[in-house]
Structures are given as C-alpha cells and as structure tokens.
Amino acid sequence: MKTAFIGLGVMGYPMAGYLSKAGHDVTVYNRTSSKSEQWCKEYDGASAPTPAEAAAGADIVFTCVGNDDDVREVILGEQGAIRGMAAGVILVDHTTASAKLARELETALAEKSVGFLDAPLSGGQAGAENGQLTIMAGGKEETFERAQPVMDCYAKAITLIGPAGHGQMAKMVNQVCIAGVVQGLAEALHFAKRAELDVPKVIEAISKGAAQSWQMENRWQTMSNDEFEFGFAVDWMRKDLAIALEEANQNGATLEMTALVDRFYAEVQELGGSRWDTSSLIARLESKP
Amino acid sequence: MKTAFIGLGVMGYPMAGYLSKAGHDVTVYNRTSSKSEQWCKEYDGASAPTPAEAAAGADIVFTCVGNDDDVREVILGEQGAIRGMAAGVILVDHTTASAKLARELETALAEKSVGFLDAPLSGGQAGAENGQLTIMAGGKEETFERAQPVMDCYAKAITLIGPAGHGQMAKMVNQVCIAGVVQGLAEALHFAKRAELDVPKVIEAISKGAAQSWQMENRWQTMSNDEFEFGFAVDWMRKDLAIALEEANQNGATLEMTALVDRFYAEVQELGGSRWDTSSLIARLESKP
Hints:
The structure is a homodimer of 289-residue chains. With 289 residues, the first copy, chain A, is an alpha/beta fold. Chain A is 52% helix and 14% strand.
C-alpha cells in the first residue's frame, strides 16, 4: 500500500520503519530534514519536502508530531497533508492531542471525503522500537477497519473506543491513572527510604497484592536509585495532563489529584527534570530537606 | 503446637480456623463472647474468658484486633496475654498498628523473655478466608524462623522485612501505594463516565500497559457500577493512613497526596461510606453536580 508518515520523532521514526519492513511504500516528511535523510538511508525510502507532497498519491497518511498546533500545521496548514490527499484516503493521527482537535479534523477532512482516526499510542519508545504499541482509536468503524491491518505491523493491540476524539479521551484516562499510581509509588518509596527500610524486601512483600502496578514492577528500582534519564519525559506528561484537565473541565469532571500531580511535575521541571522519565516525581520528594 | 488466638474479627476468625485445621491446639479469646462461642462450635475448639487465660500454656500467641489501644489492652492490660505467657513463648501481632507500638511491645515482652513479631496482613477478608494472606513481619530472625511454619497455614507469602516495627512500616508503604492507585483510577473512571466513553473498551485498551494495576483489574467494574458494599472498609483505611502520616512526620517524609486522599476518605465517610470498600473514592467524585 502507498503510505506517508509525517513526523519522525522517537515514536514515528521506528513506526515508519515497520511500515517499510512490512512491504508498504513509505514517503516520509520531517520538519528537521536531517532526520528524514537518515531514515531514507536506513530504510532505502523516499522523503518529501512538505507534508502535502509526502501525502500526494498515498492511500493512507500517518501523522505523529508534538501538540495540537503541530498537528494542525502538518494537516491543515499551507503545505499541510490535506492539500495532497484525494477522496477515499485515510488520515491517522498518532499524536496525543485534544479530543476537540480530533473532532475538528474529522469535520475538515470529511469535506474532502478523507477518513480520519485519532489514534494515540501507549507503550513508549520501547513499544515503538519493538513494534509492540497499544493504540486507542476514535473514528468511524469503516475507517478503522481499513486502517487497522496497516497499523498491525507496529502494534500489539488496537482498539476502536468510539467516535472521533474518543481515542484521545482513552489516552487521557490512561495518563490520569498513571499520575495517581506514580505519585502513590513515589510517596511510598520516599517514606520507605526515610524510614530506612529494606526497600527490595518491602517490594517483594507487597508486589503481588492490592498495591501491585506496572509502575511498581518496572520502576521501583530506578526510582529507588534516582535514575530518570530514560522513558516518557515530564514535559510530555505535562502536555497530556493539561489536555486531560481541560477536557475534564469541559465535561464537568473533577480531577483534583491529577491537578496536584501536574503541579508536582512543574516542580520537577524546575529541578531540571524536563526530560526525565515520569517516575521522577520521587526526585521532588527526595530533594526536600 | 499449643496456640492462642486473640481477636476473632473478619480476619482472625478464619485464621484461627486454619490453625485448628492444621492440627494445632487453639484457644481463642474475643471481646464479644458470642463470636468465640460460634468459633468453638464450628472448629470444636476451646475459648477463654480473658486474653491472659487464653495465652496460659501456649507456645505461640496471636493477636489480631482493632487499633493500637486494643493491642495494648489485650497484651499489656490487666488481663492481658503477657500475664499468661512463660519465657520462650512468642507473641505475633497481626493487627495493623503503629511501628512505635511494635517497638514498645518488643521491649515489654523481652523483659519476660517473650519473643515478638509485628506481622500485619494484606489480602483482605478473601485472603483470610482462603488462607492466602501476605504477611510483612518485623522482629528478630530467630523469632521469625520459629513463627513462620505456624503461620504458613493461612499465608501464601511471609517476609521478614527487618527489626520490630518494620512489618508495620511495610504495610504503610502498601497503603500509600493503594491510596495513589485508587484515587488515580477513581478520577480516570469519573472522567471517562462524564465524557460518556465506552468504559469497558477503554479498560480493555489500557489494562495491559503502563497504567495497569491490581486495583484496575479487580475494581474497575465495581467502581463503574457504584458497588462498594464489600472489601476493605474506609474506616480501616483511614486508621492506616493516619498511622502512615504520623510515621512519615516522625521520619521527615512528605506525603502530600496521601494526606489529600485521607481527606477525600473523610468526605466518603460523610457520605455514609464508613463501611464501603476503599474503591469508593469514586463515589465522592460522582456525588458532585
């Protein structure tokens, strides 16, 4: 199938690679062109100087960029993908962005008979590199059914949650859960360290019961050792939490703990932790006298 | 082995039963005597009118009561177990209580050459009824080695964390983790419901990734359906969080989210939820207009 991939960040780069390895014809676009040159060399592929030119002639176009503004620019902008797309084509946005934007894009693209899915990812850089991402999609069922087999090459699970925007909302549910789990774990480990407990023994004792979590299993050791130079960056987590808090506000939902943890992440940024992993909430506690 | 079990609540009642079924000679004591009568009938056992008399002649004495004051009363009180215990006997306290009390008891019992373990439980009522509890112990290694084979009949995992009090501290670590996980999950599900998402599909999509937790797997459905008449009561959770906050204060640890969640539980109590399961934090959010 003829595809275009717009945005070769830590997620998009390997994802576009999986499309190529699955036998699809891939044309890439990236704002910083050195990245697309590197990609073309690695995968013997093609690049285009604008999103519109990358999208021209594609059956399906993928975007995976930074935030709402970036998505708007690469899709609806002067040189946006929409200008290269024909009727019947599908656009899949893998960026974590607002549900409002997803609904706006579906409407704008429908005017050109282009199908749309908001399809944010979970699984992080490791998931993208191993082709084991989880995808939460929003959009029409017929669009989903056509796009799903193409996305299979980089995903272990792809779920259509509901109409446009619901993929993004599901991602917000995911991030709100993580905010609570990580802050709880951070306070618990901080408590254990200040009390001079044998942390590995404590984790051994509690890790099979009601306190168990993916974060406990995968992060207790790095958190105990103050290792944060990896994983999902605090800057990105704050972007996601800002979207969650804004959507909650519009739907009349109350997210007090989420708002508190977002402020804690702001303090981690002040400590110099903008690029640290989400688990660095404990660094803020440990920094206190 | 000759044992005594003091406190036949929802945890102690089946635990004493497992001791009896394992072939131990068990004498029980319970403040409300109808419970001990019922237990004696069910297990063809013996009861005593005071903790001291229950403990007389026992090789190992177990206590599982309400709070610090209750523990002090049944062990050190006028008719407390200590008055019936000979040198070389072991006392295991399964109550979730303060670490300070654990250290105090170890000292008091050592004067009579009685060994002590603080050994709080996790696994809840179901774990007690199935003999699948998790036990976090604090105390001397020789005491632990003698008590462990006896506790095996009602536990799936028994860990010696460190010296007296460290079993209680490990339990606090467990409860702080749970506070964060449950509040995060409550906000996430509340957000999903207010946004009218397909909650089962969202959970299906996110339950294998970085947001995964025991609480998500075991509580998302009851939380979504506002079912709280089961499990670990809010009153008990608040007792445990109060201990955690007090111990944190003494050790110079900062537990802001835990303190916030404790206040949220106070609001659940005001809604009439004192006996509701810990997962009822969502009821408070759903009660908002």
